[in-house]
């Protein structure tokens, strides 16, 4: 197993995943509070987040001595955990159906 850049890959992957989740959470809060078209805000913010995050991941893989497996695995693990937390949070914010 490749151990060179393992710690940097895990740390950077977790940092990028957490920042993605935080930006996603904030943009969704802004969209829900908007009186204008909230779906357009959610979709636009999602496209921007994905493009920026893919660019950052590619740059990290190209220019930093990281383990690609560690970087991508820690990014997606953090992303999935954050996604579950975000879904639960917004689900609890919904008023009960009558």
Layout of secondary structure:
Blueprint: H1 6-33, H2 38-63, H3 68-93
Helix pairs in contact: 1-2, 1-3
Query: Strand tally, please?
Result: 0
Q: Largest sheet at a glance?
A: none
End-to-end span in angstroms? 55 Å
- Rg over C-alpha atoms, rounded to the nearest angstrom: 16 Å
Low-confidence sequence ranges: none
Number of domains: 1
Overall outline = elongated
Chain-averaged pLDDT: 89
Strand content: under 5%
Question: Helical element count?
Answer: 3
Compact overview of the structure:
Helices cover 82% and strands 0% of the residues. The protein is built from three helices and no strands. The model has no long low-confidence stretch (mean pLDDT 89).
Written account of the structure:
With 98 residues, the chain is an all-alpha fold. α1 packs antiparallel against α2 and α1 runs parallel beside α3. Helices cover 82% and strands 0% of the residues. The protein is elongated, with a radius of gyration of 16 Å. The protein has one domain. The relative contact order is 0.22.
Characteristic terms for this protein:
98 residues; mainly alpha; elongated
């Amino acid at each position: 197993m490749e151990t060179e850049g393992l710690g940097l890959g895990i740390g950077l992957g977790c940092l990028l995943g957490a920042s993605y989740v935080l930006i996603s959470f904030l943009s969704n809060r802004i969209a829900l509070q908007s009186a204008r078209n909230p779906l357009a805000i959610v979709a636009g913010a999602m496209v921007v987040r994905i493009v920026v995050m893919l660019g950052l991941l590619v740059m990290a893989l190209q220019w930093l001595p990281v383990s690609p497996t560690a970087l991508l695995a820690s990014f997606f693990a953090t992303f999935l955990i954050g996604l579950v937390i975000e879904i639960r949070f917004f689900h609890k914010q919904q008023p009960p159906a009558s």
